[in-house]
Amino acid sequence: MKIVIIGGVAGGATAAARIRRLDEHAEIIIFERSGFISYANCGLPYYIGGVIEDKEDLTLQTPESFFRRFRVVAKVNHEVTDIDLKNKTVHVTDLKTGISFTEAYDKLILSPGAKPILPDFYAKNERAFTLRTVEDTLKIRAFVEQKKPKTAVVIGGGFIGLEMAENLAELGIKTTIVQRSNHLLPTVDPDMASFIHANFRHHGVQLLLNSNTNKMSITGEQVLLEFADGNKLDADMVVLAVGVMPENTLAKKLGLELGVKGAIKVNAKMETSIPDIYAIGDAVQVKHFITDNDAVISLAGPANKQGRIVADNICGLNSEYKGSQGSSVIKLFDMTVGATGINEQQAKSNGIEYEKVILTQNSHAGYYPNATAMTIKLIFEKATYKILGAQIVGYDGVDKRIDVIATAIRAGMKADELKDLDLAYAPPYSSAKDPVNMAGFVVENIKNGIVKQFYYEDIPSLRERDDVVLLDTRTPFEYMRGHAEGFINIPLDDLRDRLGELVSNKKIYVMCQSGLRSYLATRILMQNGFDAYNFVGGFRLYSSIKNEEVLSKQCYSCGKEK
Fold it and tell me: CATH homologous superfamily of domain 453-549?
């Protein structure tokens, strides 16, 4: 059997290696358009920033090492330009020599990946870059080393955009992120993104949110950007990271059935609409594990799994892809952000009746040195308590907790069942009640009616009502340093002795720093005849969102309110 694979990197290289492990006698050929057969795609921004010092570390396999280990023929700088279905051949061009030839196949695997979206305003020039391949990375690093730019603009606030902004800023380049929507990192909701915004600003990165770029032009040795609001910004270099789209050029030529965003439609076995042709990776449409909707999820984990699955099916095993839930984690300076499943905005767009809890916990036992705070947002279906998704923003231990919740989702656990997980504990790593357990406890309290919640978006209307009391249960010093407008202060430890100051027929809406003391206050109040509600996320979340609202109203060029 002869297998031709179009595209290497995560999906194609994984499929080739797995096929060899299952079939020692198969003939396997990979054609890769770039100069690298298998490389650390996710590590590219860190080479530009100098975190990864040696470019050789980016290369996971060379054609020579791949052949020595797996007897797979890997031809780089070779582009497949056409496919003859009748004769089962591919038409290949050697990009270095220009020589073209045909190669026969019994099974064909398409792993072309995704390509950067070039917006309408893009003007090709030596100071504007995209980042997809090792060649792109080398080009950007060479520019940084030779031209020594002092300013940079990154257009796009997704994974690549944020990692690029971080690495450019760490090089001492004054960096600005331009984002069309109102928050960075679309995998998380705006409330959680407010922590990310504060972190980037703390590290000197300017954010231009709700900004539509209309025009790009070159003025001398700078790139000039003009925005829909009339403002302008120039920089020594620009990185375009507005998103990617499936590379479907060959698929269109073949007449393969396409789906969302032009992605290649495949079944659970990764088979396309044409027999003996499979497709994997960023170019394919998958089922979202949470919603069961068709989706395109461009992540390395799914691509690797799909490579293995297609190899199994070619070699006679029966493997199926069970869908993607979009689990991700990203380092942003000293901060870590993790997400899995769907966010609140996606739940709304899918018409799902949901509930959410937001809690702040320490990364490990508070008495052990260097514990840091992490904020967890858990979203679950209101009627069934099915976990829909989670977002975590913090410093240490975020990756562990998001993986635990991702596993719980895959296992079909309910949100309140997170309390039952038996998780490893030692003071340097966690608390006896792990943050994930704590999320489960909060959900259980909601389920049993022990706690009722209110949210940031409720506060403006609450301030207008005569039948409520807004109560802050932090210490007087904490309250003095900053508090939400309209909230009176009665510290938790004084509450039992000062219940007479509260009107018994009014609803009490309680806030503290993280949500714990306010929860304890609601239990005191409810058992003394009051109707009490706990603020989700605490003043820590409130102040982060509030600060973001203030900054978003300021003109970036003058600092005054728009």
Answer: Rhodanese-like domain (3.40.250.10)
